[in-house]
Amino acid sequence: MDSGPRGPSGTPESGGKPPNWQEAKTFYDSLAPKKKPKSPKPQNAITIAVSSRALFRMEEEQRIYKEKGVEEYVRYQLEHENEPLSPGPAFPFVRALEAVNSRLRELYPDSEDLFDIVLMTNNHAQVGVRLINSINHYNLFIERFCMTGGNSPICYLKAYHTNLYLSSDAEKVSEAIGEGIAAATIFSPSKDVAVPQSQLRVAFDGDAVLFSDESEQIVKAHGLDMFFEHEKTYENKPLAQGPLKGFLEALGRLQKKFYSKGLRLECPIRTYLVTARSAASSGARALKTLRSWGLETDEALFLAGAPKGPLLEKIRPHIFFDDQMFHVAGAQEMGTVAAHVPYGVAQAPRRTAPERQAPPAVQ
Ligand SMILES: [Mg+2]
Question: Record's Gene Ontology CC terms (predicted)?
């Protein structure tokens, strides 16, 4: 007897016995692929677009691209297409989003209120096979690929109703922010800190991230004392919204779905406000602004100018957003995946043309 799959009666494998249709059905059902969950429609989902270099580490590939050009780069990727890429800075975040999705699917089997992850890359289509192999290797659920062939991702981000765009290309991120899309440049931490597997943790700076930069402008123009005075005077006037407010809102919407199933304490999403404001002098305006939007963070940490890195090391978020590179670098050094939101008065002046001679990076 052969050891291959046993065919149903009546098929050539059965040796000519009369057909048994029930047996045949069972046989063919066993060949059917395992049922995968369906992707939600973009207009219903919370869409997170990540670039390939945010999701996977591609330093060696990037070096080949820069030093030897696109042909060598594509050749290298083809030669290594069965070798999965290592996880990049956005990987634990994407994993945590998927963990939240599976809890939501258990609780609300018919709902499309889910995260949907889109891989947004300007890579050559041939490199797509290595990316697909890597995604399958780690069992990630990423069905939407957008290979822009070197074009700007902006129109695709809009078409996908993107709620958050993460990339390692600061220029593309600035372009997205300029178009009103929540976006951040993501950095790998300098050391590895284990992040929770069963709870998504997201930490936000306040000014120029959740809020507009209007108060930060006061600090820059008139100093801290005037800022404290100003915030006290306008304590009851909500700040305008910043680029990441919509993402906090989306997280809050999903949190409520867990709360309504009695899971407030064990909610698999936890949010943090980590601000340099001090509680006594300028904290109230931040909290009252969130309240005026019907939003809250689970924890609010007012550091009064103290470094954010040590505190973030304790929180162990999957991602931390800040508009100031100083805080991003401090978080990164202490093992936090930090993402820079290029928005507001704190941004360094744009680079001048002569420095921008390098070919556009692969995202
Ligand atoms: Mg800020």
Answer: cytosol
Cβ distance 308 to 324 under 8 Å? no
Which parts of the chain sit beneath pLDDT 70? 1-19, 21, 25, 27-35, 348-363
Q: How far is the centre of ligand 1, averaged over its atoms, from the C-alpha of 288 (Å)?
A: 17
Give the whole-angstrom CA distance, residue 98 versus residue 92: 10
Question: Residue 321 Cα, ligand 1 centroid: separation in angstroms?
Answer: 9
| pTM for this predicted structure | 0.86
Could you give the CA distance from residue 258 to residue 244 in angstroms, rounded to a whole number? 22
Catalytic: 205? Answer: yes
Q: Are strands 56-57 and 86-87 parallel, antiparallel or unpaired?
A: antiparallel
pLDDT tens string 252-283: 999 999 999 999 999 999 999 999 998 888 99
Q: From the candidates 116, 169, 205, 213, give the one annotated as an active-site residue.
A: 205
Tell me how far the alpha carbon of residue 93 lies from the centroid of ligand 1, in angstroms. 22
Task: Outline where DSSP puts E strands in the chain.
Answer: 46-50, 56-57, 86-87, 115-121, 144-147, 162-167, 183-187, 200-204, 269-275, 299-302, 319-322, 338-340
Contact 144/163 with Cβ under 8 angstroms? no
CA distance 23 to 16: 14
Give the CA count within 13 Å in the CB-facing half-sphere of 8: 13
Q: How far is the CA of 215 from the centre of ligand 1 (A)?
A: 10
* Distance (Å, whole) CA 213 – CA 209: 8
- Tokens of residue 349, six digits: 């002046």
Distance 341 CA to ligand 1 centre (A): 9
Asked if residues 239 and 295 have their Cβ atoms less than 8 Å apart, the reply is no
Number of residues written out for the chain: 363
> Distance between CA 283 and CA 285 in Å, rounded?
6
196 Cα–ligand 1 center, Å: 26
For 73, 222, 281, the CA distances from 227, given in Å and listed in that order, are: 51, 7, 9
